[in-house]
Amino acid sequence: MKKNVLQLLTLIFVTAILCSAQTPINEWQGIKPLHSTRNDVEKLFGKPMKGETHLYDTPEVRVSVYYNKGTCKENKSNSFDVPRGTVFSFLVSFKTSFNVREIIDKSSQPFEKVADPKMEGQFQYFSQDGSVRIATEISSDNNIEGVRYIIYSPTKADDYLRCSSLKH
Asked: Alpha-carbon distance 160 to 162, whole Å?
């Protein structure tokens, strides 16, 4: 019973946040690569897990956030000219799996499905603009393609933030 309630809550949570027509595809819980900061993340999730600098844990998800290390002038190895502590990309790992169709069918963008050549029953979905990658796995008990994690990255619309040496 408790597992079913948790699955239902996770499904409602994910559907409301990820599938909203008003939410850009590469945004989750208001966190958007190259636009959100560490402060924004910590307002949502609190401080990172003990001994970690970028891992946040909630009852429903574990979030790994990768922060930019400074502007192009501060750090020559950066790809984007945003301040230190700005979210570069992040991975959301779900503690309770849900059907990938909940996202794909309601997305404003098409996704390309690619089978993992090394792992039978595992797939990756790539958004058309490359900003979202969804990893899935076919469950052995009910044959549903469940979401394992989602990675959110910058979009092509953010190219204006690229360091000048990397602009095409």
From this structure: 6
Q: What does the alpha-carbon distance between residue 121 and residue 133 come to, in Å, rounded to a whole number?
A: 17
List, for residues 41-59, the tens digit of each pLDDT value: 999 999 999 888 899 999 9
Instruction: Give per-residue pLDDT as tens, 96-137.
Output: 889 999 988 888 889 999 999 998 889 999 999 889 999 999
* Count of domains observed in the chain: 1
Structural domain boundaries enclosing 150:
2-166
Length of the chain: 168
Question: What pLDDT does residue 92 have?
Answer: 96
Return the sign of the alpha-carbon dihedral for residues 36, 65, 14, 114. Answer: positive
User: How many CB atoms sit inside 10 A of residue 104's CB?
Assistant: 19
Share of the chain above pLDDT 90, in %: 53
CA distance 65 to 82: 15
Phi, psi (rounded to 5 degrees) for 27 = -125, 140
User: 111-115 and 145-152: which strand pairing?
Assistant: unpaired
Cα torsion 146, 134, 137, 50: sign: negative
